[in-house]
Design goal:
Elements: H1 13-19, H2 28-48, E1 58-62, E2 68-70, H3 71-84, E3 90-95, E4 102-103, E5 113-121, E6 132-140, H4 150-153, E7 162-168, E8 172-177, E9 182-188, E10 193-198, E11 209-211, H5 222-231, E12 242-243, H6 249-259, E13 261-265, H7 278-291, E14 295-297, E15 317-320, H8 322-335
Parallel strand pairs: 3-5, 11-12, 11-13
Antiparallel strand pairs: 1-2, 3-4, 5-6, 6-7, 7-8, 8-9, 9-10, 13-15, 14-15
The chain binds 2,5-anhydro-1,6-di-O-phosphono-D-glucitol and manganese (II) ion (MN) (2 copies).
């Protein structure tokens, strides 16, 4: 049988971004997405060789989260910052790895966008060769006359103009939305290009997995425990699901997007607001999953409606198929005083 070797339509991420940019775009936004794709290639290169270079292990510092920084965290953080600080496309940035906002040096012109990012998500998995990721949010600058301010960063998810993630897994994928559907690109390392492989991604109607860290079961409230039992089949109307938990948000959500299901990081007695950070984990993922037909909540409201009050604020997090997330809200409502 003759192999069909005629290439299918090959579309690079650069071409896709250019051909789908908003009509009024002046190039800044398009080039900012290019910059993120370039950073992704550089981080992927280091990630794929982590075992070979002296890039594994601890950087010897502790970050603002009080977490032991891994060298790859630092590399990813510095790569994203130095790719974007001088281009005149952003007015301010913020990173999980820095307590304060990252102001654009006066010597550089400011741009019209805000970049907020988790440079390396799933750091605890770096040394055990399990998939990790990068997550990014892009907002518009609120006041074009002023240099970037904290207010430009503390915007609700509804104001996002783009959001996405890079998954450094068996292959490296970049998945993003600008509000016109969710599109996935796979890195071809031989040519160093992200090629369109998943156009208009949508979450399957029939969910397959639930994803939660059962190690915290005894710290959850009774309502959360009842919800997780429901996910496991305790009620007549329970879904039939299998369980997967990778411990890298990007990987757990990518699987949820592709196979359907729900990822939950509930509040618990030790973390009353949960662990997931609103600005550079929950909100970008909520924007993306809603574009793919799903839903994300903090257990009471749509993540996208939460007005941030601080850079690193955490939220309880439920994301995936709408009916599974809405059920979490129903269980938690029962618990309301
Ligand atoms: P980060 O490595 O950026 O700090 O994020 C880690 C997060 C997230 O990726 C994942 O879902 C969660 O931590 C896992 O937390 P537990 O190990 O407590 O389950
Ligand atoms: Mn993270
Ligand atoms: Mn991180």
């Amino acid at each position: 049988m003759e192999l069909d070797i005629r290439p299918k339509t090959i579309v690079t991420i650069e071409r896709f971004i250019l051909e789908n940019q908003p009509k009024e775009a002046r190039g800044e936004f398009t080039y900012l997405l290019y910059d993120i794709a370039l950073a992704a290639k550089m981080i992927a290169h280091k990630t794929n060789r982590a075992g070979l270079l002296d890039i594994l292990g601890r950087a010897g510092q502790v970050n603002v989260q009080g977490e032991e920084q891994q060298k790859l965290d630092v590399y990813a953080d510095e790569t994203l910052f130095h790719l974007c600080d001088h281009t005149g496309r952003v007015c301010i940035m913020a990173s999980e790895e820095h307590e304060e906002p990252l102001y654009i040096p006066e010597r550089y012109s400011k741009g019209g966008y805000v970049l907020v990012y988790d440079p390396l998500d799933g750091s605890s998995n770096i040394d055990v060769n399990v998939s990790i990721g990068t997550i990014f949010s892009i907002f518009r600058c609120l006041d074009w006359e002023k240099r970037g301010r904290l207010e430009d960063i503390l915007q609700p998810g509804r104001k996002l103009v783009a959001a996405g993630y890079i998954l450094y897994g068996a292959s490296t994928m970049m998945v993003y939305t600008t509000g016109a559907g969710v599109h996935g690109f796979t890195l071809d390392p031989e040519i160093g290009e992200f090629l369109l492989t998943h156009e208009f991604m949508t979450i399957p109607d029939k969910p397959k997995y639930y994803s939660v860290n059962h190690g915290y079961f005894n710290r959850w409230s009774p309502a959360v425990q009842r919800y997780v039992h429901w996910l496991q089949g305790s009620e007549e109307d329970s879904p039939v699901l299998s369980e997967r938990y990778i411990g890298s948000l990007v990987a757990d959500i990518h699987r949820t997007l592709l196979r359907g299901g729900v990822f939950a990081y509930p509040a618990d007695s030790k973390m009353p607001n949960g662990k997931i950070r609103l600005l550079y984990e929950a909100a970008p993922m909520a924007f993306l999953i809603e574009q793919a037909g799903g839903y994300a909540s903090d257990g009471c409201q749509n993540i996208l409606d939460i007005e941030p009050t601080s850079l690193h604020q955490r939220v309880p997090f439920y994301i995936g198929n709408r009916e599974l997330v809405a059920r979490a809200e129903a269980y938690l409502r029962e618990e309301q005083p």
